[in-house]
Amino acid sequence: MPNRAVAFDDLWKKWTYFALVPLEEGQFKVWTWGRFACLGDSVHKMTPNAGQGGNAAIESAAAPANQIYLLLEETKGAGPTYDQIKRSLSGFQARLDQRISAILKTSNDLTRAHALKSVAARIMVQYFVPQMGDYLVDLLSDMYIGAELLEFLPPPHRFLLATMPFNLTQGLGKHESRLRRALWALPLLAMSALTVRTMTMAGLMYPVFHGIFETSRFEWKGVF
Ligand SMILES: Cc1cc2nc3c(=O)[nH]c(=O)nc-3n(C[C@H](O)[C@H](O)[C@H](O)COP(=O)(O)OP(=O)(O)OC[C@H]3O[C@@H](n4cnc5c(N)ncnc54)[C@H](O)[C@@H]3O)c2cc1C
What we know:
Distance between the termini: 83 Å
Structural class: mainly alpha
Number of strands: 4
Radius of gyration: 29 Å
Bound molecules: flavin-adenine dinucleotide
Strand content: under 5%
Helix content: 40-55%
Number of domains: 2
CATH topology of the largest domain: FAD/NAD(P)-binding domain
Order of helices and strands: HEEEEHHHHH
Protein backbone atom coordinates (compact mmCIF):
# COMPACT_ATOMS: atom_id res chain seq x y z
CA MET A 1 0.00 0.00 0.00
CA PRO A 2 2.38 2.77 -1.10
CA ASN A 3 1.53 6.36 -0.13
CA ARG A 4 -1.27 5.24 2.17
CA ALA A 5 -1.19 6.06 5.86
CA VAL A 6 -1.38 2.94 7.99
CA ALA A 7 -4.17 3.25 10.51
CA PHE A 8 -4.28 1.40 13.82
CA ASP A 9 -7.26 -0.48 12.41
CA ASP A 10 -5.00 -1.95 9.66
CA LEU A 11 -2.68 -3.38 12.32
CA TRP A 12 -5.54 -4.57 14.46
CA LYS A 13 -6.99 -6.63 11.60
CA LYS A 14 -3.72 -8.57 11.44
CA TRP A 15 -3.18 -9.36 15.12
CA THR A 16 -1.94 -12.81 15.99
CA TYR A 17 -1.77 -12.23 19.74
CA PHE A 18 -2.94 -9.55 22.12
CA ALA A 19 -3.29 -9.23 25.86
CA LEU A 20 -5.18 -6.82 28.07
CA VAL A 21 -2.88 -5.62 30.83
CA PRO A 22 -4.36 -4.37 34.09
CA LEU A 23 -2.92 -0.99 35.05
CA GLU A 24 -2.89 -0.11 38.71
CA GLU A 25 -3.53 3.39 39.98
CA GLY A 26 -3.52 4.77 43.48
CA GLN A 27 -1.81 6.99 46.00
CA PHE A 28 -1.17 5.96 49.59
CA LYS A 29 -2.00 8.31 52.44
CA VAL A 30 1.13 7.42 54.42
CA TRP A 31 4.54 7.26 52.72
CA THR A 32 6.87 7.20 55.70
CA TRP A 33 7.05 5.52 59.07
CA GLY A 34 9.82 6.26 61.51
CA ARG A 35 13.07 5.89 59.61
CA PHE A 36 11.35 4.21 56.65
CA ALA A 37 10.36 6.08 53.52
CA CYS A 38 8.65 4.54 50.48
CA LEU A 39 9.30 6.05 47.07
CA GLY A 40 7.91 5.89 43.55
CA ASP A 41 5.30 3.41 42.44
CA SER A 42 5.22 1.83 45.89
CA VAL A 43 3.23 4.85 47.15
CA HIS A 44 1.98 6.65 44.03
CA LYS A 45 1.19 4.39 41.13
CA MET A 46 -0.23 6.02 38.03
CA THR A 47 -1.24 4.70 34.63
CA PRO A 48 1.50 5.07 31.98
CA ASN A 49 -0.35 7.15 29.37
CA ALA A 50 1.14 10.50 30.40
CA GLY A 51 4.61 8.94 30.76
CA GLN A 52 4.97 10.44 34.26
CA GLY A 53 5.32 7.47 36.63
CA GLY A 54 9.09 7.27 36.32
CA ASN A 55 9.47 11.06 36.53
CA ALA A 56 7.35 11.11 39.68
CA ALA A 57 9.45 8.27 41.13
CA ILE A 58 12.62 10.30 40.50
CA GLU A 59 11.01 13.31 42.18
CA SER A 60 10.03 11.22 45.16
CA ALA A 61 13.70 10.26 45.47
CA ALA A 62 14.83 13.91 45.15
CA ALA A 63 12.44 15.16 47.85
CA PRO A 64 13.83 13.02 50.71
CA ALA A 65 17.35 13.85 49.49
CA ASN A 66 16.46 17.53 50.03
CA GLN A 67 14.97 16.77 53.43
CA ILE A 68 18.07 14.84 54.51
CA TYR A 69 20.30 17.66 53.28
CA LEU A 70 18.28 20.19 55.32
CA LEU A 71 18.43 17.94 58.36
CA LEU A 72 22.21 17.63 58.12
CA GLU A 73 22.52 21.40 57.76
CA GLU A 74 20.36 21.94 60.86
CA THR A 75 22.17 19.38 62.97
CA LYS A 76 25.69 20.20 61.85
CA GLY A 77 28.23 18.55 64.15
CA ALA A 78 25.70 16.60 66.23
CA GLY A 79 24.01 13.54 64.75
CA PRO A 80 20.23 13.90 64.16
CA THR A 81 17.92 12.30 66.72
CA TYR A 82 15.30 9.70 65.85
CA ASP A 83 12.52 12.29 66.16
CA GLN A 84 14.36 14.70 63.85
CA ILE A 85 14.82 11.96 61.25
CA LYS A 86 11.16 10.99 61.54
CA ARG A 87 10.01 14.61 61.13
CA SER A 88 12.38 15.19 58.25
CA LEU A 89 11.20 12.13 56.32
CA SER A 90 7.51 12.83 56.86
CA GLY A 91 8.22 16.35 55.54
CA PHE A 92 9.13 14.76 52.21
CA GLN A 93 5.56 13.59 51.70
CA ALA A 94 4.23 17.04 52.64
CA ARG A 95 6.47 18.60 49.97
CA LEU A 96 5.21 16.34 47.20
CA ASP A 97 1.72 15.19 48.13
CA GLN A 98 -0.25 17.88 46.31
CA ARG A 99 1.88 17.83 43.16
CA ILE A 100 1.92 14.02 42.88
CA SER A 101 -1.87 13.88 43.41
CA ALA A 102 -2.37 16.31 40.53
CA ILE A 103 -0.01 14.38 38.20
CA LEU A 104 -1.61 11.09 39.16
CA LYS A 105 -5.09 12.42 38.46
CA THR A 106 -4.00 13.88 35.11
CA SER A 107 -2.34 10.58 34.07
CA ASN A 108 -5.35 8.58 35.09
CA ASP A 109 -7.77 10.98 33.36
CA LEU A 110 -5.65 10.76 30.21
CA THR A 111 -5.91 6.96 30.27
CA ARG A 112 -9.69 7.24 30.37
CA ALA A 113 -9.62 9.76 27.53
CA HIS A 114 -7.38 7.46 25.43
CA ALA A 115 -9.80 4.62 26.12
CA LEU A 116 -12.72 6.89 25.03
CA LYS A 117 -14.39 5.89 28.26
CA SER A 118 -17.13 8.52 28.32
CA VAL A 119 -19.10 10.60 25.82
CA ALA A 120 -17.21 13.69 27.02
CA ALA A 121 -13.88 11.89 26.37
CA ARG A 122 -15.00 10.94 22.85
CA ILE A 123 -15.99 14.51 22.01
CA MET A 124 -12.80 15.87 23.55
CA VAL A 125 -10.45 13.43 21.77
CA GLN A 126 -12.16 13.50 18.38
CA TYR A 127 -13.03 17.18 18.05
CA PHE A 128 -11.05 19.34 20.49
CA VAL A 129 -7.67 17.64 20.87
CA PRO A 130 -6.80 17.82 17.12
CA GLN A 131 -7.36 21.61 17.30
CA MET A 132 -5.30 22.19 20.45
CA GLY A 133 -1.89 22.54 18.76
CA ASP A 134 0.78 23.99 21.06
CA TYR A 135 -1.64 24.07 23.97
CA LEU A 136 -1.10 20.31 24.39
CA VAL A 137 2.65 20.89 24.72
CA ASP A 138 1.96 23.67 27.23
CA LEU A 139 -0.20 21.30 29.24
CA LEU A 140 2.61 18.75 29.33
CA SER A 141 5.20 21.40 30.18
CA ASP A 142 2.95 22.51 33.02
CA MET A 143 3.60 19.10 34.58
CA TYR A 144 7.37 19.51 34.45
CA ILE A 145 8.06 23.10 35.47
CA GLY A 146 7.26 22.71 39.16
CA ALA A 147 9.30 19.51 39.60
CA GLU A 148 11.29 18.82 42.74
CA LEU A 149 14.77 20.29 42.44
CA LEU A 150 17.87 19.08 44.25
CA GLU A 151 18.34 22.16 46.41
CA PHE A 152 22.01 21.53 47.09
CA LEU A 153 22.91 21.63 43.37
CA PRO A 154 22.49 24.54 40.94
CA PRO A 155 19.58 24.03 38.51
CA PRO A 156 20.55 23.09 34.95
CA HIS A 157 20.95 26.40 33.12
CA ARG A 158 18.76 25.42 30.16
CA PHE A 159 15.77 24.83 32.48
CA LEU A 160 15.72 28.53 33.21
CA LEU A 161 15.84 29.65 29.57
CA ALA A 162 12.75 28.04 28.07
CA THR A 163 9.43 29.79 27.44
CA MET A 164 7.99 27.95 30.44
CA PRO A 165 11.05 27.97 32.72
CA PHE A 166 11.44 25.88 35.82
CA ASN A 167 9.56 27.42 38.74
CA LEU A 168 8.87 25.58 41.98
CA THR A 169 5.88 27.77 42.79
CA GLN A 170 4.08 27.04 39.53
CA GLY A 171 2.90 24.13 37.45
CA LEU A 172 0.40 21.36 37.85
CA GLY A 173 -0.97 21.02 41.38
CA LYS A 174 0.30 24.43 42.40
CA HIS A 175 -2.18 26.62 40.62
CA GLU A 176 -3.94 29.29 42.60
CA SER A 177 -7.41 28.49 43.81
CA ARG A 178 -9.96 29.98 41.40
CA LEU A 179 -12.17 31.00 44.33
CA ARG A 180 -9.27 32.80 46.03
CA ARG A 181 -8.41 34.53 42.77
CA ALA A 182 -12.04 35.57 42.30
CA LEU A 183 -12.11 36.98 45.84
CA TRP A 184 -8.97 39.02 45.16
CA ALA A 185 -10.60 40.31 41.97
CA LEU A 186 -13.74 41.48 43.78
CA PRO A 187 -12.34 44.94 44.77
CA LEU A 188 -11.36 45.51 41.13
CA LEU A 189 -14.85 44.55 39.98
CA ALA A 190 -16.30 46.91 42.60
CA MET A 191 -14.04 49.71 41.34
CA SER A 192 -15.12 49.04 37.74
CA ALA A 193 -18.78 49.11 38.75
CA LEU A 194 -18.19 52.37 40.62
CA THR A 195 -16.44 53.86 37.60
CA VAL A 196 -19.32 52.94 35.30
CA ARG A 197 -21.77 54.42 37.78
CA THR A 198 -19.74 57.62 38.25
CA MET A 199 -19.42 58.07 34.50
CA THR A 200 -23.18 57.72 34.17
CA MET A 201 -23.57 60.30 36.96
CA ALA A 202 -21.15 62.59 35.11
CA GLY A 203 -23.47 62.33 32.09
CA LEU A 204 -26.43 63.27 34.26
CA MET A 205 -24.49 66.15 35.82
CA TYR A 206 -23.41 67.51 32.45
CA PRO A 207 -25.99 70.38 32.36
CA VAL A 208 -24.76 71.60 35.77
CA PHE A 209 -21.03 71.46 34.88
CA HIS A 210 -21.66 72.91 31.45
CA GLY A 211 -23.41 75.92 33.02
CA ILE A 212 -20.52 76.50 35.45
CA PHE A 213 -17.90 76.40 32.68
CA GLU A 214 -19.92 78.71 30.42
CA THR A 215 -20.85 81.36 33.00
CA SER A 216 -18.30 80.75 35.78
CA ARG A 217 -21.34 80.78 38.07
CA PHE A 218 -23.16 77.96 39.76
CA GLU A 219 -26.93 77.95 39.61
CA TRP A 220 -28.77 74.91 40.86
CA LYS A 221 -31.53 74.13 38.36
CA GLY A 222 -32.26 70.70 39.66
CA VAL A 223 -31.10 67.79 37.61
CA PHE A 224 -32.74 64.81 39.26
C1 LIG B 1 3.94 0.35 29.91
C2 LIG B 1 4.53 1.40 30.80
C3 LIG B 1 5.09 2.53 30.21
C4 LIG B 1 5.64 3.55 31.01
N1 LIG B 1 6.17 4.66 30.43
C5 LIG B 1 6.71 5.62 31.19
C6 LIG B 1 7.28 6.80 30.60
O1 LIG B 1 7.29 6.98 29.39
N2 LIG B 1 7.81 7.73 31.42
C7 LIG B 1 7.82 7.60 32.77
O2 LIG B 1 8.32 8.48 33.47
N3 LIG B 1 7.28 6.49 33.36
C8 LIG B 1 6.74 5.51 32.62
N4 LIG B 1 6.22 4.38 33.21
C9 LIG B 1 6.19 4.27 34.67
C10 LIG B 1 7.55 3.84 35.24
O3 LIG B 1 8.02 2.68 34.58
C11 LIG B 1 7.38 3.57 36.73
O4 LIG B 1 6.65 4.61 37.32
C12 LIG B 1 8.73 3.46 37.40
O5 LIG B 1 9.46 2.38 36.87
C13 LIG B 1 8.56 3.28 38.91
O6 LIG B 1 9.83 3.13 39.47
P1 LIG B 1 9.97 2.49 40.89
O7 LIG B 1 11.44 2.43 41.15
O8 LIG B 1 9.12 3.23 41.87
O9 LIG B 1 9.34 1.02 40.81
P2 LIG B 1 9.82 -0.19 39.90
O10 LIG B 1 10.45 0.27 38.62
O11 LIG B 1 8.63 -1.09 39.80
O12 LIG B 1 10.96 -0.86 40.75
C14 LIG B 1 10.67 -1.66 41.87
C15 LIG B 1 11.72 -2.76 41.90
O13 LIG B 1 11.60 -3.45 43.14
C16 LIG B 1 11.72 -4.85 42.87
N5 LIG B 1 11.05 -5.55 43.98
C17 LIG B 1 9.73 -5.70 44.20
N6 LIG B 1 9.52 -6.41 45.31
C18 LIG B 1 10.73 -6.69 45.81
C19 LIG B 1 11.17 -7.42 46.97
N7 LIG B 1 10.30 -7.93 47.83
N8 LIG B 1 12.50 -7.50 47.18
C20 LIG B 1 13.39 -6.96 46.33
N9 LIG B 1 13.02 -6.28 45.21
C21 LIG B 1 11.72 -6.16 44.97
C22 LIG B 1 11.04 -5.03 41.54
O14 LIG B 1 11.48 -6.21 40.93
C23 LIG B 1 11.52 -3.78 40.79
O15 LIG B 1 12.75 -4.00 40.14
C24 LIG B 1 5.65 3.38 32.43
C25 LIG B 1 5.10 2.22 33.00
C26 LIG B 1 4.53 1.25 32.20
C27 LIG B 1 3.96 0.00 32.85
